[in-house]
Amino acid sequence: MSASLFNRAKEIIPGGVNSPVRFYEPYPFFASYGRGSKIITEDHDTLIDYCLGYGAVILGHAYFEIISAVKKQLEKGNIFCVPTENEVRLAELIIEMVPNMEMVRLMNTGAETTMHSIRLARAFTKKKKVVKFDGCYHGAYDYVLVNPGSSASNNSFNGNLVEAMNQTLLVPYNDLGALENLTKTNNDIACVIVEPVLANMGLIIPEEEYLSKLRRICEREEIVLIFDEVVTGFRLSPGGASEYFGVIPDIMTLAKSIGNGFPLSAIAGKKNIMELLSPEGTVFQGSTYAGNPISTSAGIATLEKLSSLKNELYPKLSRFTDTLSNGIRDHLRDLKFKASVNNISSMFQLYFTDEKIKDASSVRKSNNILYKKLFDELLKSGIFIPPSQFETCFISYSHDDDDIDRTIESFAKALKKVKDFE
Ligand SMILES: Cc1ncc(COP(=O)(O)O)c(C=O)c1O
Questions:
Q1: Which of 125, 302, 371, 403 gives a 20 to 30 Å CA spacing to 310?
Q2: Are residues 22 and 104 in the same domain?
Q3: pLDDT of 223-276, one tens digit each?
């Protein structure tokens, strides 16, 4: 049972969880296994999953082709730390799918990719400062933990090196004026790092032409533009946010959907920047597990599947997300909530505020207590959305019409209960 597992866990694992985002009051449910759109808990409840490994599980849990590719590889060995054909094939697939990227380096986690992208940008520009956006999350290390979103938004940064954090300059998302002003007053900016669609402050969508104008400012000021596509890569479209919005960054980070949730990530970028990576260049990046055969076999199987299904998969994900978001909007309106829903492609989130959600400060005005009540009520009826307002809800290829209908009905019931607390 989840309650007794959590009691065991909290004695020996700080807070009982291995990543703070997983904790919620009074204690989190423990997963037993996953199938398609569902997680089956240690309490034998079946939940329709809209958290999906915080966006990683694009095809669905235990997706047959991915699991069989990994099983096949397991028979042949899981790590060699010498190059394998898998790595070459996966890099080729990434370059085929993501427009205008010329070289790829494989890694394991999202944080590694953003850290090394920033290092590359500093080496390339010979400048030091990093510009990041209020509410964007790029990983758990000092100089991106400056007003981050996600579970780091409570700003508990004891032990961080203030000198490192001071190298990072902060601007509001969707505010080109603020970025213009900053670039005019500071000539030591190496890079602008941005989640092209902000998925760690709930879901914030870039305003019309925001990303293309961001691109132009970076070009003019000779600043490296890094799209952190850890969430949006292969999810927003086969070529991620870059393809979706038609804006090409200098470096792009990829993770999560790249391997349907296996620990796998990548940096893709222009050749003149990527060539700076060691051993060809002098920017050091290395990892025992980078490009390991298990993760790459999952990556190849996932990208081949996404590629072959793309004409059906992406429209289906968008259609389901639209239907669900509109269903939630109808109920919010009927119940006269001051609330709104943001959605794009296979991502959505709702906010209990009448403020237009366009940046982190508007999200902070949303009523988190009502969100947590909604989470609790939905969980009781078999629907799992992320426990925090600062996360995004996702849909996978394994979700079906029945899941969507049941979810809209569950939202209707849950929202009626939440209304009592408004
Ligand atoms: C946009 C973004 N970048 C970077 C990261 C860090 O990835 P990881 O947790 O794999 O280190 C995350 C994690 O959720 C993320 O959402």
A1: 403
A2: no
A3: 999 999 999 999 999 999 999 999 999 999 999 999 999 999 999 999 999 999
CB contact at 8 A, 351 and 340: yes
At 320-351, the pLDDT tens digits run 999 999 999 999 999 999 999 999 999 999 99
Whether residue 342 sits in one domain with residue 298: no
Q: Are 345 and 318 spatial neighbours (Cβ–Cβ below 8 Å)? A: yes
- Spacing, Cα 113 to ligand 1 middle (Å): 9
What is the domain count for the chain?
Answer: 2
Residue 412, judged by CB atoms within 10 A of its CB (0-12, 13-18, 19+), counts as middle
Task: Examine the domain organization and report whether 84 and 180 are in the same domain.
Answer: yes
Edge-to-edge strand list for the sheet holding 31-35:
31-35, 38-41, 46-49, 383-384
Q: Which residues contact 408 (CB under 8 A, 6 or more apart)?
A: 323, 324, 327, 328, 331
pLDDT recorded at residue 151: 81
Q: Do 301 and 332 belong together in one domain? A: no
Q: For the whole model, what pTM was predicted?
A: 0.97
Tokens 């979700």, located at residue:
399
Element (H, E) at 35: strand 31-35
Low-confidence ranges of the chain (pLDDT < 70): none
CA 80 and chain centroid, separation: 29
393: domain CATH number? 3.90.1150.10
Q: Domain check: are 352 and 285 in the same one?
A: no
Residues with a CB atom less than 6 Å from ligand 1: 54, 109-111, 114, 137-139, 195, 199-200, 228, 230-231, 255
**For the purposes of burial, counting CB atoms within 10 Å of the CB of 231, is it exposed (0-12), middle (13-18) or buried (19 or more)?**
buried
Contact between 295 and 108 under an 8 Å Cβ cutoff? The reply is yes
Query: Based on the domain organization, do 301 and 227 belong to the same domain?
Result: yes
In order of 82, 106, 185, 220, the CA distances from 288 in angstroms are: 10, 11, 41, 38
Cβ 353 vs Cβ 367: under 8 Å: yes
Q: Are residues 335 and 299 in the same domain?
A: no
Distance 415 CA to ligand 1 centre (A): 30
| Active-site option among 49, 134, 142, 228 | 228
Residues 287 and 351 in one domain: no
Strand order through the sheet with 224-229: 103-107, 265-269, 251-254, 224-229, 189-194, 129-133, 168-171
**Residues 215, 225 contacting (CB under 8 angstroms):** yes
Domain that holds residue 380: 2-62+310-419
